[in-house]
Amino acid sequence: MASLNSAAAAAATPVAPSAPRRPGTLRRLLREPVAAGAFAVAVLLVLAALLAPWMAPTDPLDNNLAAAMSVPGTEGLPLGADSQGRDMVTRMLFGLRVTLVMGLLSVLLGGAAGAAIGFAAAFYRRADGLLMRLMDVLLSFPAILFGLAIAAIFGPGIPAVVLALSVATVPLMARIVRGAALVVMRMDYIEAARATGMSDARLIARHVAPNCLSPIFVFATLRFGQVILLGSALSFLGLGAQPPVAELGAMAADGRNFLFFAPHIAVLPCLAIFVVVLTFNLLGDALRDALDPRLRV
Amino acid sequence: MSALLEVNGLARHYPVKKGVLLQKQVGTVRAVDGVSFAVNRGETLALVGESGCGKSTTARLVLRLIEPSAGSIRFDGQDVTRVDGAAMRSLRRRIQIVFQDPYASLNPRLTVGDAIAEPMQVHNIGNAASRRAKVQELLRLVGLAPFHAERYPHEFSGGQRQRIGIARALSVEPDLVVCDEPVSALDVSIQAQVVNLMKDLQARLGLSYLFIAHDLAVVKHMADRVAVMYLGRIMEIGDKRSLFRDPRHPYTRALLSAIPHPDPSRRGKVVPLGGDVPSPMNIPPGCRFHTRCPFAQERCRQEEPALRDIVPSHAAACHFAESLPDPGLNYAGGLSEAASRRLALFASARQRAA
């Protein structure tokens, strides 16, 4: 076939445009001002969480009861102190660390398992009924109940919270991925790929999964926010972060009792949760767009 | 000429189930119901028929994208329905498909180069460098430019995408290309380009086509032989010339006369087909076309006609194939004026290209 060059082809061959190469995913991501802002804040948040032990002015457990409930701006306590007189700056940094790890791990673990089940259900139609009914069973338990059960078995703590929230995320992700994959599976390019004789795993990895990214990203970022709030609820119930460990949700729950005398104890961790959730939602949206070749300029 | 693809008594029946928990079968959709044909090397067999007659199902059966309920498919002497594993893989390399919808047939997340190279990757043909070279060559072959390899499908027009789909099918040097209405989603002027491209490629590469279409002008231009399907069965099959000049089945006649015509004074000459296609869940007894056939007799309601040779290499499934009245239609070589004009357009597009 090497010598084949039709006259028709030669006549129709246009000249290569001299446009520069397309920018990479990261560069496209950073071109949007909102996305770039979210990216910067996310980097800051992750850095703050990672470097908490070195950045924090004090130990998160150092308490000075004399300074209890100091308002922000008090000398040496820029964000005040909590009910035990512990520095809020330190507590927030360490709390952010635990909250981020908890949220990300739960979404990643639960999302990955859910996506795998969703793809399997869409791909192997025989298994669909059984898999999705199992997901329905999981879906019928509230996340809090999982937390209770798992804490009862393994003892309360962050690992129990991550496990409970992961399990609670699995059926949701499985449903979303199954639906998206079913749509994609009906496209002709899937049949074309099948007709080449490629393996199922390759077909899913190369053709089905990349075309399901949009809903996965949207759901994962939404779920990240929900998971953090659920984790806080579990901590509040005493199933998650155990005092005196700093965790944003637990701190907010702790501050609830002093809402009228020292609102900053509850408000500051809530603000931090708000910033974290908002940042990752914006980032997820931007990432989804940046990964879609159809939206490239 | 030896047969490359031989299909015998091919059938695909879908059970229709009812009930939520205890499903029971309430019927059967007979999408393809005993189809036999052969495609010779280097030849184009066109499969025509109206929507829902089982053309596309037949195509997918040949590719073994779906499993047949009955019948055999022999490709180059091997029974496609019985092979497995490595033998199936090598068969898959030799039979490729081009789809109708150029917008759905390319993965939007893969560059055109990756899409074309993929079949070669799956079959471990060459290394990365040789595959890249082959992609460039294929792009040129179908009238695109090498730099197009880095672009994504959404950056192309429908006609260009169809060329990319053809390049992808050709990347593994198949013997048979199944074309499932490859031009029906394109503008007429683009159709001409793509149809001519496919003919050129066939001449150069010795391809065989199983060409599915409902557009008789395109079929007349492309095909060597034509098979007319109705409700999952072949009604008439024969050499293109013989079939277009002297259609022996009332359904084929109706199809030929139904090609739209701009001249209102000729409308009276169209053989009108009453009614709709019966449901493939409930195929009429006897000849499955008798409910709409203007020549139907009592025998047609009782006895299903076999597909039999009327003249050499031209068979029809009609009891009265020999005695049908002259259709009294001036087909202008079997086709209406409008269709002839389209053919002329194809020919002129080809001349321009040459």
TrEMBL record, chain A:
<protein>
    <submittedName>
        <fullName>ABC transporter permease</fullName>
    </submittedName>
</protein>
<feature type="domain" description="ABC transmembrane type-1">
    <location>
        <begin position="96"/>
        <end position="284"/>
    </location>
</feature>
<keyword id="KW-0812">Transmembrane</keyword>
<dbReference type="InterPro" id="IPR000515">
    <property type="entry name" value="MetI-like"/>
</dbReference>
<dbReference type="InterPro" id="IPR050366">
    <property type="entry name" value="BP-dependent_transpt_permease"/>
</dbReference>
<keyword id="KW-1133">Transmembrane helix</keyword>
<keyword id="KW-0472">Membrane</keyword>
<keyword id="KW-1003">Cell membrane</keyword>
<dbReference type="InterPro" id="IPR025966">
    <property type="entry name" value="OppC_N"/>
</dbReference>
<feature type="transmembrane region" description="Helical">
    <location>
        <begin position="98"/>
        <end position="124"/>
    </location>
</feature>
<feature type="transmembrane region" description="Helical">
    <location>
        <begin position="216"/>
        <end position="238"/>
    </location>
</feature>
<comment type="similarity">
    <text>Belongs to the binding-protein-dependent transport system permease family.</text>
</comment>
<feature type="transmembrane region" description="Helical">
    <location>
        <begin position="136"/>
        <end position="154"/>
    </location>
</feature>
<dbReference type="Pfam" id="PF12911">
    <property type="entry name" value="OppC_N"/>
</dbReference>
<feature type="transmembrane region" description="Helical">
    <location>
        <begin position="160"/>
        <end position="177"/>
    </location>
</feature>
<keyword id="KW-0813">Transport</keyword>
<dbReference type="InterPro" id="IPR035906">
    <property type="entry name" value="MetI-like_sf"/>
</dbReference>
<feature type="transmembrane region" description="Helical">
    <location>
        <begin position="258"/>
        <end position="284"/>
    </location>
</feature>
<feature type="transmembrane region" description="Helical">
    <location>
        <begin position="34"/>
        <end position="56"/>
    </location>
</feature>
<dbReference type="Pfam" id="PF00528">
    <property type="entry name" value="BPD_transp_1"/>
</dbReference>
Automatic annotation (TrEMBL), chain B:
<dbReference type="InterPro" id="IPR013563">
    <property type="entry name" value="Oligopep_ABC_C"/>
</dbReference>
<keyword id="KW-0813">Transport</keyword>
<dbReference type="GO" id="GO:0005524">
    <property type="term" value="F:ATP binding"/>
</dbReference>
<feature type="domain" description="ABC transporter">
    <location>
        <begin position="5"/>
        <end position="256"/>
    </location>
</feature>
<dbReference type="InterPro" id="IPR027417">
    <property type="entry name" value="P-loop_NTPase"/>
</dbReference>
<dbReference type="InterPro" id="IPR003593">
    <property type="entry name" value="AAA+_ATPase"/>
</dbReference>
<dbReference type="InterPro" id="IPR003439">
    <property type="entry name" value="ABC_transporter-like_ATP-bd"/>
</dbReference>
<dbReference type="InterPro" id="IPR050319">
    <property type="entry name" value="ABC_transp_ATP-bind"/>
</dbReference>
<dbReference type="Pfam" id="PF08352">
    <property type="entry name" value="oligo_HPY"/>
</dbReference>
<dbReference type="InterPro" id="IPR017871">
    <property type="entry name" value="ABC_transporter-like_CS"/>
</dbReference>
<dbReference type="Pfam" id="PF00005">
    <property type="entry name" value="ABC_tran"/>
</dbReference>
<keyword id="KW-0547">Nucleotide-binding</keyword>
<keyword id="KW-0067">ATP-binding</keyword>
<protein>
    <submittedName>
        <fullName>Dipeptide ABC transporter ATP-binding protein</fullName>
    </submittedName>
</protein>
<comment type="similarity">
    <text>Belongs to the ABC transporter superfamily.</text>
</comment>
